[in-house]
Design goal:
The chain is mainly α. It is built from 8 helices and no strands.
Length: 153
Amino acid sequence: MEWNPKNREIKALRQKIIVFLRGFTMNEADIEDITQETLLRMIKMKDRINPEQGIISYSFRIAANLWYDLKRKEKREFRNNKLSQTHDKDLLNPVYKAIEKLSRKEKLYTNLFYFQNFTSREIAKMEGISSSTVRNTILRAREKMKKSLLKTR
């Protein structure tokens, strides 16, 4: 893959990363920042990326890790009462709150399965675990979200 910003493959990858991140947050500024940082890291590491392992799954892993890093940073800021108003709007959404309660793996597997159309077998292969573990994790995540949303009624 040629790492030129005008390359169609790069534009398609960028769009896939954006859709992937929307499974984590609806904050467009965060999505854009993380997408750009993901692509920059991919460019820096282009010689070390194994195309057989999948550029898309590799970029999703980078984007997810960047998102988790951002959330950790926001938690520290929250403790210091420096939470931004745009984030407050996101916290008011019951679905967003339910998603926030999920574990890191539950968020990742649910996003990949429901929003990125990966099969449980494909997710298992990426993570190096069994597909039944992936299915159970997704099932537990769905149950947690259901309970959380029913409580907000």
